[in-house]
Amino acid sequence: MKGNVLDIAIVVGGAFASITSSLLANVFAPTKGLFISGVDLADLFLVLKIGVQDGPYFISTCQ
């Protein structure tokens, strides 16, 4: 009985993952695109703490 329950849980989990990714790709992404009108969010980031070293996202306050 335990093996069958585990098998069913894996199948249901896989189906849920497929449904979720399809819903995000086909419903939420186009809707988001309509509201933000073509803004590319790929380069959007938020600096949580100013770094100590120079890096690609270092914001220098001592200029």
Question: Main β-sheet, in a few words?
Answer: none
The chain-level mean pLDDT equals 76
Strand content: under 5%
Please tally the β strands and state the result: 0
Order of helices and strands: H
Question: What structural category do the secondary elements indicate?
Answer: mainly alpha
Rg measurement, Å: 21 Å
- Portion in helices: 55-70%
Helix run count: 1
> Per the principal axes of the C-alpha atoms, what is the gross shape?
flat
Describe the model.
The longest helix is centred in the N-terminal third of the chain and has 35 residues, at 2-36. This protein has one helix at 2-36. The chain is mainly α and 63 residues long.
Keywords:
single chain, 63 residues, mainly alpha
Which secondary structure elements does this structure contain, and how are they paired or packed?
Layout: H1 2-36
TL;DR?
The chain is mainly α and 63 residues long. It has 1 helix and no strands.
